[in-house]
Amino acid sequence: MNIGILSSKRIDSNSSPSHANHYEGSKKQSRLAKFFENSIVARRMLVFIAMLGMCMLIGDGIVTPAISVLSAMEGIRAPFPSVSKSLVEALSAVVLILLFLVQKYGTSRVSFLFSPIMGAWTFTTPLVGFYSIIHHYPSIFKAISPHYIIRFFVRNGKEGWLLLGGTVLCITGAEALFADLGHFNRSSIQIAFLFTIYPSLVLTYAGQTAYLIKNPDDHDDGFYKFVPTPVYCPIFVIATLAAIVASQSLMSATFSVIKQSVVLDYFPRVKVVHTSSSKEGEVYSPEINHLLIILCAAVILIFGDRKDIGNAISDDHVLENSTSTLVALYFFVFFVMAGVYVSAVFTKIPEGGWIPFAFSFVFGFIMFGWFYGRQRKIEYELTHQIDLDRLRMLLSDPTVQRVPGICFFYTNIQDGLTPILGHGIKNMKSLHKVTIFTTFRYLLVPKVAPHERIVIKKLGLKGVYGCVIQYGYADSLNVEGDDFVSQVTNRLLGHIQNSSGFVPSIAPEIEDEISDLEEAKLAGVVHIRGKTRFYVGKSCGWFDRFMLAFDEVLHNNCRSALPTLGVPLPQHIEVGMLYEA
């Protein structure tokens, strides 16, 4: 099934694998698949919903650190009642701002502290929970019986359904297990969860419940109040440090999501810095980090009530996990379970639940606008591409000169040449003696083997070559310009030398080709990329007018793609062209 967002025009999936997504399956399609194939509106809505679910994780990176640190810091008010709520909010904002400011140094510098902190958390809180169970209500584990939940709903009816919204925070964070798959293998996560995290949570929640059975009026702050006074201060310190570590994990996850979205061309280009030379997953984005600082501080200072922020997280996590069922395909079971919780947490929207929706819709709209504009450009380039015969005809014009040097001409299509090339030759009347049409191809693998990373081929014209740079989701494209040029030219040199084979008659041609390459490299290198925009005519509908205008705003305010390769600005040339929408 093709889940694209353009009209049903033929697009070669091999030409742009990151934009034309084709899922091969059986010839027999379901009614749902046929419905999406035939409805462009449904396809656009499905893509937008999927993006929205991913943006919920970005929303977590804003809301979860805020409530985690704020909840932990509020424990200071028990030993010091004179501390005001406003001061707690200010201290929480300061802690978060400091945490964001150290992100540029990478987590490796402080990660050695994470394990002891989380180890202390998972060991001490269940001990407190066990003490509370013994002291307040030893028979608490009879609540495991389904008999009590049935009685609960029979007795409370609608009120019981509404109370489900307050229990969602007990199961949030499960999606972090899937984020951890990028750093640990599955078995290590399963062992850690089943033998440490899960028992710790069960004992802690059971201890809180046992305390609340005897002290039902303390439900607004059930954690710190169930902690015995002699161990209150150590638990407060551990809880605050654990909240900081948890916030750090969400920040790292947000940076990773943004990085992968940029790599897949689903998000406007932002600067992504690898903070570790040995761990590919440790990344940092200055622009996103500064944005998160502002939004997290705003959430704390404007929506300082933990209840409101908790409602926001409830909506965020449930909808985020519900959206994942579209991918996991455990639709029916998950839909029924998550649907009950979603229906309950929807009642929390006026009480703060709208916060993650606002963040997610803004980020989701940005992603959809960028993706839509990119797909429209890909569609235009594929339908107006230049073939070799057309290029040969353009070069046969006596007014067109082959100038010295190497030109890297970047294009989004592989089987054919971008229409920007014809536009440039017509107006500049020149083409470099060695021109390498370069395309970046994303592969669904972690890393591409070094010998497969650069694929070179001759295009049948003297000095004209095709180059495909293949990379996986864990590969980095942040290479220095000179190193990038050397890698490609060395691979091209090897390709030329190997093309002679055992045919002595073509050896002089090979020597001339190698000589031309060396001379062109000495003459200088230039990198050319198209800078395109759409001409929106009167025949365009309102949707295209709005989305293409928004796409232009995004492109005018994002980073250029070439500097991410370390290309020096003096070697960077942009050729402008209007595409007809």
From TrEMBL:
Membrane topology listed for this record: Multi-pass membrane protein
Transmembrane segments: 45-67, 87-106, 112-134, 161-179, 191-213, 234-258, 288-304, 325-347, 353-372
GO MF assignments: potassium ion transmembrane transporter activity
Predominant location category: membrane
Keyword set includes rRNA processing: no
Domain K+ potassium transporter C-terminal per the UniProt entry, residue ranges: 404-579
One cellular component (GO) term of this entry: plasma membrane
InterPro entries, per database record: K+_transporter, K_trans_C, K_trans_N
Domain K+ potassium transporter integral membrane: 41-390
Pfam families, A to Z: K_trans, K_trans_C
Localization in the cell: Cell membrane
Alphabetized UniProt keyword annotations: Ion transport, Membrane, Potassium, Potassium transport, Transmembrane, Transmembrane helix, Transport
Residue numbers spanned by region Disordered: 1-25
PANTHER family: OSMOTIC STRESS POTASSIUM TRANSPORTER (PTHR30540), POTASSIUM TRANSPORTER 17-RELATED (PTHR30540:SF13)
Similarity annotation: Belongs to the HAK/KUP transporter (TC 2.A.72.3) family.
Protein name: Potassium transporter
